[in-house]
Each structure stands twice: as structure tokens, then as C-alpha cells.
């Protein structure tokens, strides 16, 4: 169960409105690596975590924080939209400055949300549940979490360079910091899994290694003609991954089997049921005007 | 530019058809972490890579391999569907064994694809471009790649346990192996970025650290009441992340500003334009029958 | 900012697992009228609410409760999936009882989530931000909220009839009750808007009545031949809406204008640019083999 | 079965083209509360209505009208796009007025539709079947209909303020009027359900009240710290809903059960199958280079 | 403007209910080539048609018919669902026949629609506006229409083989016939465009042939190793398309340019801004715990 | 299996950057008829082709070429974005030329991709698997292929008119040429199917003609009042399709059956279970505060 305080985790006050930037910030709300994603990703991971204790508690602490990040961003967007010329008409758009603002605005923030944030990305695509990952395997999921925080911090850093507003920058500095610590924590949690003896290798899931095809689990297939792949550190030293410079296909041709005649693939109509289906077809053809 | 040979990278021959399993395999074709995703993810990363040389070549080698994995899986699905009772009618379904098969089949594999694979996941949701990540930052993207291969290997491992067919298992053993080496290679490439002096910290992007809010980049906020988060290794030793046990909100209330009266938020109608809008509203009310 | 306790708002303990029902419950998690929708709908409404005070506080109280409902349902799903025969192979499926379970299961709950809930509906379609409404107009939004709770309670009632499990039924009884009180509260809040003088009519938004076309705001157009529409109470008494029994179109033909020749609509190619475009086309035709 | 006349229900003639506004109008065509939604919503409700007579006839009359609204808007969009500078090149865009128009246009209206309307919203997101509701329960659906017309009228009102074009405003006045009468009619139809004895309470569905948890169907949980929720009219008088000021969770912790080892959740790999899975993992680790 | 009669275009009466088949029929309602698609495709083509007269009238006649096809199928689905064991519980599912039905049913038809059709395909994916094409170019669109009717007839034919119900087969025979005539009519309309001199070649759009690269508009590039492509009729005779047996890339390497340092691509951080960004990064690294 | 060379199929070098045009080109990458669509459409058709030989080889040759087209366009987009003012702030936007560029840019190309292409269309909607068709019936699929190439060439032609850049135009001339030859080849392949005796009529699938309703496979229903449909060439001569000028519905009313009371459709609650459900409802009403 959750509780809420009206106070924001961190202040979200722009110095002045900027409707164009309000659209760009939507990426951090409803984009594939926005705050709605990490909120839902961590919540589902936490609820689906099978071990009570430190891992689950860390996940739920972080998940709960992220709901508050959506809140901060939604508040910032509403404030950036204050006084936005949403209802400017064609005449007004002839003023270049006004035009600049209107051309770059998110029309749905005005028409649909009445001057507030949408659960969408910067292009207006609604947030989707398919953005999140919660597999029940902590190694696989912590790696996805560190990756998500890296993409999130990268987008935040880009957006940090797209504004001069001190109030916005102040909040983004906080967001950058949280994305830093969250990257650190998920990487540390991966190390902890090993320290706890829960994972022996960095490969997820940590099993089926005997069953997997041992001939093919340490080779890179050279299938593009760039000459430098084999010169990377990954192909050197004790842990070297072998570079197969002239790889050959191991399988035969990918022929699909004869289809069910009742599904009317071209093959069956032509070859198998020639006496019946085709006969009917010919007869029908004569009837067709 | 690409070239194709009809020979599969690895054999994809089931011992016998299994229409129910053909549906499950769709997750590895068109799921969020299926082969269509890694294909497109690596292709866009390669095309968007700004440094010629080993990193780009490694990405393109792997991308090109993955197209062939979609091919192997699509071929396997078509073969698993051979002789599937797709057109069995209500009467036939009364046979329990038949019913078991029909209940678990993907109806679109028959109706839409004529007995072949769909570009969908195991629930029939079409593959989407939003599954992929290609940010132009190699550290962030390699971490996403390692995460994707971990999820992919996890799903393959689960599917490995859902079949007894030696032919299917043989192919999945190959897939498990490729997912293993691809995890290794992306992790090794992350290490290589540091070895090359391209990255100094594991935090992506590797910049803005001075600007980010230094007070908040090393604290975990204790916002769920699980008591064990602070006992993790992540809060111990030299690299310890501090656990804020009683965190307080740093911002004020998240009040949204007064909206544009022309957008008809409740506030404006009531308070601002009382003399006009409300007057009109009252008058209008009398007119409304 | 939010806080979380590990205790559920209400108990979510099935008497025994039921993997088929676990799929159906997904509709209440990630369906268009599931708990993810009301959570996000109320959160965005609250953050976008322009009047501090009772309305905003009521919205945020309810929003915060709903996050906990997603939690209860996700927990219930994980428990219903305990021991589910997710990895049963083709051979096992020949047992009718097993087949019944496997045919009705959500394959992604096993393959993707490792035996947990997905952020999807009962057919596996991911939850989407487009399900929610938060317009900034309280009358319009409260009406949408009452409607959402009605659909939610209806689906819960249907699901209540699809199980015999006392533990599941116990939780659904709680959910039914919450959907009841939430319907009451949003309807009461609509009345309160009028009591507060914030709305004068039940028509949202409460403005532009003078501007709207007065000739057409009280007539139902009889455009289907069902004879009984005009006999409804809506066409009787003081508030009667007039039934136009033989309505005629008021506009002219919907002809589209002549298109830009550079966009190659058929018209322009044929008629306008005949001397040039068509000349070229003819010439080109001769060249085409 | 349907029939069509080429005459529009109401005239759709702009005084002059306005390509920027043509994009905004897309929200009324293919947005979540646009005319495609009410068209399909009412059609499916009508086809799924189980009682012949006045309710079904009213639904079908309205559904049929709404198809004509999509037609009016699509025609208006094509006319607003007449002469749009769709093919202006980078050089032309240096003219500020031209730039203003091009920056605000929907690029797909030119590239994909050749200067016509798209089945999309104002941000280019395609209309989706998930926008509609047709549950078979008239009380629940009529409430959703009134809510949809309220959102639709609100968006129309906002768009009315975004243009000065007399021809566009004329059509929108008609649309406002239709949204008014449709709100009235669905609210009247809700009253009629009660008058007919089909519904006894405003709670949908009108059943399971004895079964629902009586302890929890009249309380609002105070879970956000806003102090004013309890001061609303909803908590006063005979129908008062009780405000639980210090609500406590009623359930235990939301622990997920032990997962199936074959699904490789972290728990199972670590604790249960230690002797087998982990043993294999360790052995495999030694083999991994 | 449209009008509706309650009479169906053709009878839609199954002999007996079949809930499993009701799910499959959803493909013809809300699939990519279902009736919702042709309805909306033809409507938008008609509204966007720039030439008054026979082409536009043919399009609108057909569009209007298709709305009635959605109606027939939705009615059929509701009737096939009569008495469906939607609320059967886990216990009941132990009966194999019941299990067969329940495993194959669409759970949303019961939970969401109350026993009616959904605006979805056979896998529950909502219909999307992106399925339709209406480009304003009649040749391009008529070809898409003929293709859509071919896919539609193919799916109908497959579904025809999946039922024994005489009532269902009767309706599908009508649908097959309509798909036949619609294919004929769109192919005839393509011929008519040429007869009218509106199109000179079968290539759409009928322009830019002089501008297009004449060296490359009649060659097939042999990029897969299948040996038989060049033996097709398409490479023979007067109209022969040349088969390039050993095609070579015509362009240089696809190198992406140096990115904007402010976007933090790996390249810029490493090479360009070494003195600044990297310096900061190193300093920051020391600070990071 | 596939192989890749770093050389592009054709050069993709703009003379100078043009960030606005980079957004428009997204339609050719990730739009419904962009290169990702034809790539995946032909790949799935090839893998699903049941006849070894010339048809399958032609499909795979073309599929392999198309992957290289996505590559060319992605490269072009990255080059068009070189030096784009992605990080210009509100102040900079006051310059009209800058504003023109920023208003028309795709914000995700900067924020998400770091200055590269996205797997999206020109409005930012992610590419979807539902765009492709691969039915297993060659006649139906070749017709869809010809239609897709026609839409693709039409969009390319429109985009050709939206730029003056000689480098861009050079590449588009190549694309136009490829779209021309691909239209020719799929039309020729349709002719070849007939020449090979695989298809007897132009109607797909080539079967069930005797079963289909012969009364209705050669009539156009006149359902819109446009008078000219019957004057088309399609209604003349030996192959004339009959125009039904006064068509009458052939079916009865589309009444839906009585629903399952347990699903709480309005009908059942009111009429069937009056003594029980309604009784409970009344009782419950008294209890409701």
C-alpha cells in the first residue's frame, strides 16, 4: 500500500515558461526510458521478487521514489506551459517568435490536457507496458535496470543542454544525480548477487551451460566486412573470444514444409489438389464474367 | 549492402510438429527481447556509430548474424506447424487431444500466415520499433545489449524446458550458446571502452558530474518499509552508497499554475472569468431545455 | 512524493493456484479499465488540478489507493501461478486436464515474467497511456472517472462469477466495494461542483452555449429506421429533446479541393498538368521495357 | 445495412486554408475522444444491445450520425490543406511566415495522404480500437458515452478558440451543439433506465451488493496528506461517505511464492536446486573462458 | 451523411453457438485485412478523392457496403457466443469438452464486451488506423484495394474451412462472393484509369520517369544465392527485366558524421572535447565513491 | 544466413544538412510503406514460401536488397542531421530561421538517438509488425507487394519535390528507379503465376468459386447517392459487373441474443433474473448510504 505527500521530492520551478521545452520534457515522462518506465519496471520487479530481504527492499525503495519523479516532471511541464499561446490563431502565427513557439509545441498538451502533461513521449506516442522488463531473474533484471538508468541519464543530459532556465537546470541536476546513484546501485547489486553466491558467472540465466552448444559459445562470426572487429580486446588474452573470420552456415536450406491445402498456399493449390481444387477453379473461371 | 545464402546458420528441424510450441516460439521472434529486436537494435546502432573501427565492426558482425536468427526461428515455426489441425471444426475439438492443441495454437498463424510465423510475440502483439535502443552512446548501448541478451537467453532457457523434441532442443542449444557469447562480448566491449580511455566511470554518459547535484548522487532514499535495503553490500565499504533512513521531501507542493481561460479548466471558469463566462453559462442554462 | 508499506491494502490469497484464472485477472491489471488505468488517470488529474483544496485532495487520496490495487492484483496473479505447469511439454498436454490449463494460460506470464503478472490485459496487449483521461476540466474528468469505475466494477463482477476460490472471491468482494464507493464519490463530486457554483449545467465544458448553434443543440436525428427512439422519456416533458423524424442534410457535397500537383493525386496528373506531367509520362512509357 | 448521401450533415467550408489548423483538427477525427471513437463506440454498443426498442434505436440513430461527423471533419481538413506549402524546400523555410506554417504542419497529411486527412490524432498516433467501450451494460455504457461527449465538447471548445476562420467556427458551433445534445441525451437515458426499473441504484452493475464487502463500500481512504478531502460535500449529510483519516493496511505482506525452478527465477536457482543447478553452474563457469 | 436500416445486408444466423469460432471470426472484424479496415480505407479514399464522378461514386458505394459487413460479423459473433460457458470455473474446466471451448475462447468477449464482438483481431490486438491506405492517387490506392480484398477473401476461405455450421457457411459464402466482386471491380477500375488516359503506365505514380535513375529501373539484383530467380518469365521477352548476377555496391561506406558534443555520443566525448569533457569526467570519477 | 558489406548499395550524401528534411525522411524508413516494411514483408514471404525455385529466389533477392535501403536512408538521416541545432535553447529560437528548423525537427532524433535515425515514421510512431503481409498465397502477396511499392514510390516522389539538395535528389532518383522495377517485377510475377498454370483467375485465392454465393459475386450495390458509379467501364461489355441500383437488405434485423445473466448485460438484469438479481439490487439500494 502507498501513501503520498503533496511535497515534491525536489523543487520543480522554472524561472519562466517555455512551451517548446515542455514538449521535449515529455520524453522523460512517457518515453521508453522515461520515469513512467522505471516506476512500473521496478514496481513489477518488486512485486514479482521471490526472495524477501535486501534485494526486494532495495527495489521497492527505488520504485517508490520513481513515482515521485513522474510527479516532479508533470508539475514542471504544467508550469512551463503557463501562458503558452495555445489558442493563438493563424493571424498570430505570422509573428516569427510566436510561430517558433507554436511550431514546436505539443498540440495535445493544450487540446487534450488543457495545459498539462500527457502520458506520452516527445512525439506524442502513448507510454506502453511493453517498455518494462520484470523477468523474475534478478541478474537479468538488474542489468536491464542499469541500462535503463544509463539511457535515462543520457536523455536527461541532452535535455540539460537544451535549456538555459536556471530552475529547470536545477531540477535536472537532481535528476542527473539520481540517475547516477541508481546506475551505481544496480551495478553494486549485480556484484552482490555474486558475493552472495547467487550467481557464479556474469551470464544470465546462470544455468544450462552444459547443455548449451559448447562449440558455439565463444566465437564471433565475421559476417560484415569491417576488418577491425577481431582486433578488439575481446579477442585477446585469457578470456579471448575467438573471431571466426570465414564462417560457414551450419544448417541446410530453410525450406518450409508443404502447407495444409485448406489454407490455400500457392503450392497446395497448384500441385497437390490439382485434380480437385484446380478443376473447380477452371470451371469457376468460365463462370466468372 | 547485404547478401543472403539459403543455408541456415544452424539447422532448424523439429523431430515432429507441435503447433502449441509454435505459438510459444513467437516470443523469440517478435517479442520485446526476440531476434527481431536484437537485429534492428544492432543495425541501427551500427549505422549510427560515429567511430569507424573495431566497435562498429563488432556491432555490424553481430547485427548481420541476428537477421539469420529470425530466419532460423521462422523456419522452425513453419515446420512445427506442419499438419497442424488448423481447420478442425467444433466437432473435432471434442476430442481432448485435438482440443489441447487447438486451444493452445496461435489462430493467426493459420488464418493470416497460412501456416507460418508472424512478426508478433507469443500473445500476437506485433513487433514494435519502440523495443530497440540505439542512442549513439556506446557505453549506454552496450549495457542495453548485454541486458537484451540476458533477457533473450532467459526466455530461451525457459522455452528449452517446455519441449522434449530433440530437434528443437538442438537448435535452442545453439541459441543459448550464441546468447552466452553475445553477453560476454558486450560486457568485454564495455571493459574495452574503459581500456581505451573512452570512458572513465561506469556511469553513462560520462560527463556532467560536476554539474549534477553532488548532495544527491550517492544516497538511497528509504521510501518503502522493508528493513533490509540498508544491509546490502551496496551500503558497505569504500564505495558505500548511503541509505537515507528518514528522507524528507526537498520541494514544495506541486501546485499547477492558473490555466489559460480559453482552455476551460475548472479553475478559470469559476474564478477568473466569473463575470463573463459564468454569466453566459447561467443564461445558457435557462435556455437549455 | 510517495511512500510504501509492504502490507497489502487487502489480503490477496487464493485457496489454491489457478493458472487459467491468472490470465483472466490480467484484464483488471492492464486492461483499458484496469487498475493501471485508474492509477495513472487519477495521478495525472491530481497533478494537473488547478485548484488547491478538497477536489485535488480527494483525487490524490484515490490515486494513491489505486497503486495499491495494482499491487494486490499482481500479488494475486503470482500466487495463482504457483506450480503452474508452464513447462509441460507436448506429451504432457495429452492429459485433458493439463491441456485445459495449458490452453487457457497466458504464455508470457511464464516465458517473459517467470511466473508473475504482466503489465498487459487478458489478451496480452500492453497497457497504454492513451487509456487515461486528464483534461483539466473537473466536470468532464469526474464523469470519466465514474464511467471508468462502472466499467471496472462490471468487469470485476464478471470475474467474480468465473471463480469458486474463496480467497479470490474475498479479494474481489473488497474490489467490488471500492468500485462502488468510488462511483458514489465521483458522482457526489459532480454534485459538489454544482453546489459550489463551479458548474451551472450538466454540460461540459460549461461555456460557449451562446455561440453554439442553438438550432441544433436539442434535436436527435432519426437516421436509423428503428421506430422506438422517439418514444423514450428523453423526448417527453419539459426537458424533452426533439426527435427529428425526417432529417435532411444541411451541407453541400463534401468535395475535396484540387490537390497540389507535386503530390501526384490522380486529378492533377490528369487534368492540370496534362501538357507536362502527362507528356513526360507518355514519353517515359515508351522507354519502359 | 447503411446508405450514404454525398451531402454533408453540415457545411464544412473554411474561408481560407490553414495547414497548421488542419493538423490540430486531427484530434477530433482520430483522437481518443474524436469522432472515429464515438462512431465505433455507438456502433458496437448498438450491435451488442440485447433489448430491442428505444435504447437500441437511440444508440443506432446517434451512431449513424457520428459517421457523418468524421466525414465533415475529413472534408474540412482537405479544404484547410488547399495550397499548403507541403513541398516547400529548405530555402523557402527561411521565410518566417512559411516556416511558421511548415513547422506546425502534419507531414503525413502531405507525404502519406496527398493533402488529406489521416485516421490519426493531432500527434500522428493512429486511431485504436481500444479507445471504445461497449460492455453490454447500458448504465455503464451510457455513463461512458456522456463522458466521451464531454471530453469531445471540451476539445471542440478549445479548438474553437484556436481559429478566427468564420467557416471553421460555423462548423464547430454545430459540433458544439451536437456534443451538447448528446450529453443531454445520454444523461436522460440514464434517468430513463431508472424510470423503467432497469436500474435501482446509480452503481453499475446493479448487483452483487450483498456479496460485496459492506465494510468497505462507503469509506474514502486518506492516503495523501492534503487536509481538505474530508471537508467535501461528499462526506456530509445522509449520503455521507466516511473519510478514514488514519487508514491501516488490511492485508499481510505481498510475498510472491517460490517460483518454478525451470523458469530460472533467482530464488530457485540459489536456494532450491543448489545441488543440481548451482553445481552445473559452477562447473560451467570453469569451462567458460 | 449516412442512414441505417436494422436489416442486415445478409443473414448472420449460426445453427448453433460456437464460442471458439467466435474468437477466430474477430480476424475478419478487426484484423489488418478485416472489414473495419476496408470500411475506413474506402471512406477516407472517397472523402479524399479529388475527381467528382464515377471513381468517387464507386468508392463511396463500396465503403458504405463495408460498414454493413462489420455489422453482419459483429451480429454473428454475438450469436455464436450465446450460452458460452464464459463463467465456468476451474472445477468445470476439468471436463475436457468444456476445457476445449474455454481454452480457445477470447476472454475479453466475455469480460469486456459481455458476450459480444470486440474491435480487435483474433489475438485481441485492437484495430489500428495505420492499417488503412488512402493516398489520393487512385492507381496506387486501387491496387491496395485489390490487394486488401485478396487477403480478405483468403482469410475468409480459410475460416470457411474451419466450421461445419451451415448458417455460418451461408454467410461466409456471401462474404466470399463480395470479396470476389470487389477484387474484380478494383482491377477493372485500374483498367479504366488507363482507358480514360489518366494513367499511361502501370507504375504509380505516373511521373518522374525521366528524373528517375534510368540505369537502375530495369534490373533485379541477385543478392541471395538461390539460382532460379533469373529463369522466371520476368527476365524473358520484350519486357524482360535484367538480372544482375554479380551486383556490386554503388556507394561508399555508410559512415555517420561526427555528432554534436552536447549529445554525448561516444566519439565526441572521447576525441573532440577531450580537454574539457574528459577532464571533468576524470575529476568527477575521483569524487564518485 | 546473411552477410554485409560496409559499402552502401547507392551513395547517400546530402550536399548540406537539413534537419527538417531528416524528419520527413523517417516516413521512408519506419512508415507503413517504408523500407522496414518491405524488408520484413519480403523476408517473411520468402521464409514462408512453400515452393522452392524462381518465385522464392526472386523474393529473397528483393528482400535482401531492401535491408540495404533501410541502411541508405538511416545513413542519409544521420548526415542530414550534422550540425543540427538540437540543443538550441529558448533564446536561440527567437531567431526565425533557427525557429523554422527547430519547429520542424524530430525531437527524438536528438534526445533519443543522439543525432541519428529512429525506427519510426515522420510523426514518431514506431514501426509495427502489423504493417506487413505474408500470407503464403503468392497471388495475394504479390498483389500486396505491387501495392506497397506503388505507395512507396508515391511517397518518394512527394519527398523528391520537398528538397532541392542535389545529393538527396540523386539518392531518391535511385529509390524511384528501384520502386519502378519492383512494381514491374511483382506485376510480371503475377502474370507468371498464370503462365505456369498456378492461377486461373485474377481472384485470390483461386478456389471456392462454386461454393461462393453465385448470386452476389458480380453486383455492385448502389448505397451512396452518387449517380455515376454505374457509368464506369466496369459495368460495360462482356465482363460487366452489374450495378444494383436499388439494393435491398437480404437479412433480417441484427438482434443480439439474450446474454448470460452472470455477465450483467442490462437485459438479463432487468427481465430474466428479476426475482433474484433485481430483488437483491433493491435490498442493496436500501443499504447503500
UniProtKB/TrEMBL annotation, chains A, B, C, D, E, F:
The keyword Ribosomal protein does not apply. It comes from Amycolatopsis albispora. Keywords: Calcium, Manganese, Metal-binding. One of its GO terms (molecular function) is metal ion binding. It holds the Pfam family Mn_catalase. The lineage of its organism: Bacteria, Bacillati, Actinomycetota, Actinomycetes, Pseudonocardiales. This is Catalase. Ca(2+) binds at residues 57, 61, 224, 226. Mn(2+) 2 binds at residue 66. Belongs to the manganese catalase family. Coiled coil: none annotated. Mn(2+) 1 binds at residues 35, 69, 149, 182. InterPro entries: Ferritin-like, Ferritin-like_SF, Mn_catalase, Mn_catalase_dom. Its cofactor is Mn(2+); Ca(2+). Binds 2 manganese ions per subunit.
